């Protein structure tokens, strides 16, 4: 530290002109050289540095403006996309509601159709059962009638002789004649 202060003190006491020599004090010479170089750089480089900083400033400002424009465009596109998404969601909800109501309607139609079909099948079954019952009853009647007729014919044939047979036929013909007169 002492050397630094000595070098400044010695600056004030320069030897008289006429003597020329090298200053071997490194700190003193570096400060002088550094101040001279900085002075020259500031004097001559001020314009160049100012131009470089202005160009850099303009590039940064242009980049910021472009970024703002891009951000505004992106925000606008985002708003459009949100609006479109909202519209699509509403349409999807509408389709979903319509789909559910359509499914319910089809389900009810299918249930009603099935009930009608079952009811018709039940009616057909009942009609078939009634028809088969009537047919069975008619077959039983025919057999009973045939058996009764055969039994009556057998009894008549065994009990009747020719004379009784002719009287029965005459009586029946008389009854039919009387019925014929009553109906006219």
TrEMBL record:
InterPro entries registered for this protein in UniProt: ATP_synth_b/b'su_bac/chlpt
GO cellular component, one term: chloroplast thylakoid membrane
Superkingdom as given in the UniProt entry: Eukaryota
GO molecular function: proton-transporting ATP synthase activity, rotational mechanism
Membrane topology summary: Single-pass membrane protein
Pfam families: ATP-synt_B
Principal place of residence: membrane
Keyword Transmembrane found: yes
Segments crossing the lipid bilayer: 26-49
UniProtKB keywords: ATP synthesis, CF(0), Chloroplast, Coiled coil, Hydrogen ion transport, Ion transport, Membrane, Plastid, Thylakoid, Transmembrane, Transmembrane helix, Transport
Compartment annotation: Membrane; Plastid, Chloroplast thylakoid membrane
Residue ranges that the Swiss-Prot or TrEMBL entry lists as coiled coil: 64-98
Protein family (similarity comment): Belongs to the ATPase B chain family.
Function: Component of the F(0) channel, it forms part of the peripheral stalk, linking F(1) to F(0). F(1)F(0) ATP synthase produces ATP from ADP in the presence of a proton or sodium gradient. F-type ATPases consist of two structural domains, F(1) containing the extramembraneous catalytic core and F(0) containing the membrane proton channel, linked together by a central stalk and a peripheral stalk. During catalysis, ATP synthesis in the catalytic domain of F(1) is coupled via a rotary mechanism of the central stalk subunits to proton translocation.
Further facts: In plastids the F-type ATPase is also known as CF(1)CF(0).
Subunit structure: F-type ATPases have 2 components, F(1) - the catalytic core - and F(0) - the membrane proton channel. F(1) has five subunits: alpha(3), beta(3), gamma(1), delta(1), epsilon(1). F(0) has four main subunits: a(1), b(1), b'(1) and c(10-14). The alpha and beta chains form an alternating ring which encloses part of the gamma chain. F(1) is attached to F(0) by a central stalk formed by the gamma and epsilon chains, while a peripheral stalk is formed by the delta, b and b' chains.
Protein's UniProt name: ATP synthase subunit b, chloroplastic
Native source species: Chrysosplenium macrophyllum
Lineage: Eukaryota, Viridiplantae, Streptophyta, Embryophyta, Tracheophyta
